[in-house]
Amino acid sequence: MEDTAVEAHRFACDGHFFEVRFERTPEGWIGRISRDGAAEVQVIAFPDGAGFDPDDVRGSLIAGCEAAVQRIRWPAPTHH
Fold this sequence. Notes:
single chain
């Protein structure tokens, strides 16, 4: 997989909006997922290897992050 810049991605899931920013590392890709209104960031690693469409790396990363968001337990928002 070649080293390329991958544009951030915004998407909605279960009434929340998320943004994921991607970073290329020597071992693969890192996705940092943030949810609007939350201070926490979830970090997901995508090692080089099977599972990537070589013609659509960004699409593969996006699909992985969108699937992961459904399994992440986000803390409930607090009201001050």
